[in-house]
Amino acid sequence: MLRLVTLDVTNTLLKFSRPPGEQYAAIGQLYGLNANPKKLSEAFRISFKKHEKEVPFYGASSIGWQNWWLNVVADTFRKADCPADDDTLKKVGYHLNKHFSHGGAYELIDGSIPLLTRLQSKSLKIGAVSNFDERLDSILIQKMMKFAVTLYENISKTRKLFSKASESISFNAKRYNPGINPPRIVYWTKSVNNVYSPFMPFSTSNIILRSSFLMFCGNQNYLKHRLDSREQKANSNKNKMLYFYPFFALALFQSKKDEEEEKSLESELIMIIKRGVLAIQRAELNKAEQLLHVALKSAQDTQNHQAITYIYDLLANVAYQREEYVKAENLFKEVLKRVLADGMAPDDNAVVEISLKLASVYASNGDYEKAVQGFHFCIGTQEGKIKKYGEANVDEDTTLLWAMSMDWYARFLLNLQKYELAKKHFIKAYEMSERVQGLNHPQTAVLLNDIGSVCSLQKNYAEAISYLERAIDAAKQSDSPDLGSFYVNLGAVYLQQGMLQEAELNCKTGLFLAKKSKNVEGIEEATACLTEINSVKSENPKK
Q1: What is d(CA 150, CA 470) in angstroms, rounded to the nearest whole number?
Q2: Region of residue 111 (left: phi > 0; alpha: psi -120 to 50; beta: else)
Q3: Which residues contact 291 (CB under 8 A, 6 or more apart)?
Q4: Which residues have a Cβ under 8 Å from the Cβ of 326 and sit 6 or more positions away?
Q5: 24, 157, 507, 530: least buried by Cβ within 10 Å?
Q6: Please, what is the end-to-end C-alpha distance for the chain in angstroms?
């Protein structure tokens, strides 16, 4: 039974009413500072990430959020080539702290009011859970909530934040009798990798929803879903966390009359789709396809247009993973036709995402002309949005989808042995990943590894070692499951140079890590590397 819905705030319910640079510039002018708003926006993004890394959680355990933001403000103006004395910057900082403490600095994202109204009509407890400082309590949106919990106030993070959320409505799974499912909680967020990702284990009956479902509350168009770039790569590690996509929320927001009339059919359909998605995550592709075809028949019988589109997309992904490229192509085209017919803009991120998959299908089929056209469309469309609004002002999905398009195109070029061009695109993808996700994000580490691999193919061994060592450092920080493979790749570079001792050390480390993480592919890679090393040793005993 659903009892609680918690929502992230930033970019899920609220966004800046104007870009930060414009708001900083307006306040700065009151104190005689004339700064370029665009430069301020870019400087703000850089300063925020810098201070977030150096003094995490808004200085909760050290200098406090007020001083933390004063430092960000001062750093932002300096980086925007707007020098001022410390006293003036402090006054501007205090003014901005107050300015961003009220609702005027923000505006509701489209669909927020209908969403909250529909949730309230269901008598659900609604709360805000956010990576925010303690000013969240004074922002207007909190008045619509039963409670607000911030990471700043709960510095221990992990489960404690969500434990506090559930305690706020006076229930806990432990109060329920054994064998009875605990009440379901929905965590609603813009980015699953942001505040929410560590908390899914809090209860296996809980759901994380991407905030793209908000568009459903304002209209009945296709419910967009986002796949993490790692999930979209062929032969990539499967994400162990199951992301329940927005379609599943349909059952939560039916009217009472609808629930009475369609409860059985809708519940059965949603359950079948959930089982199909679980099978995909577990790489049980035959089972997934069977389940999804059953779900498709049910959706067609009930004329559930949105469900049909969603299931087609899932089936297309299954076909792609099974290397059934003709089937995947036809299904992706059908999904694209349906979402465009429903009114989705041709440059919408969801359209670009499907087009990127199609380009990859064309590449796999050997239709290189269509593949290149597809990759160029995806890269060009995302670049157009970034140039139009500025990188600091577009959402994270847009920038990361651009980086993913660059990454996939680079892999395509790599297969064609266009090493220098592939390297160029890998580097662009890496630079964006580092800016948006951080140096130690698993995807950033993967891209560093890919650049190193290209350098190795070009026989630029010193450069290859440098990139691979950086990939290893980043992977260590993020506990990446690919760490063992990176060590093996580094060992292979040393092997190519005849440095057998270094090669063996790295391949053995890779084997140890692969066994520890039960990474079968990693174990095979490391074993093959060590076998090759032993072969070289036997041929050249002195080495």
Answers
A1: 33
A2: left
A3: 272, 273, 275, 276, 279
A4: 365
A5: 157
A6: 67
The CATH code of the domain at 2-11+108-224+235-256 is 3.40.50.1000
CB of 440 closer than 8 Å to CB of 477: yes
Amino acid identity of 191? S
* Helix%, strand%, coil% for the chain, nearest 5: 70, 5, 25
Give the pair of three-digit tokens for residue 195.
């505040």
Domain 14-105: CATH superfamily, name plus number: Haloacid dehalogenase-like hydrolase (1.10.150.720)
- Selection from 314, 302, 238 nearest residue 276 by Cα: 314
52: nearest Cα among 159, 189, 195: 195
DSSP letters of 126-151? Answer: EEEEES--GGGGGSGGGGGSSEEEET
Whole-angstrom distance, CA of residue 3 vs CA of residue 178: 19
The DSSP bridge pattern shows strands 2-7 and 125-130 to be parallel
Digit-coded pLDDT (tens) for 154-196: 544 444 444 544 444 443 333 333 333 444 445 445 444 444 3
User: How many other C-beta atoms can be found within 10 angstroms of the C-beta atom of residue 260?
Assistant: 9
CATH topology for 439-543 is: 1.25.40
DSSP helix/strand/coil, 336: helix
Angle at 481 between CA 476 and CA 486, to 5 degrees: 65
**CATH 1.10.150.720 in the chain, residue ranges:** 14-105
Q: Where does the chain hold its CATH 1.25.40.10 domain(s)? A: 439-543
Three-class DSSP labels, 468-489: HHHHHHHHHHHCCCCHHHHHHH
104-163: pLDDT as tens digits: 777 777 666 666 666 666 666 677 766 676 666 555 444 455 555 555 555 444 444 445
C-alpha–C-alpha distance, residues 509 and 516, integer Å: 11
Tokens of 130: 């956010």
At position 449, the amino acid (one-letter code) is N
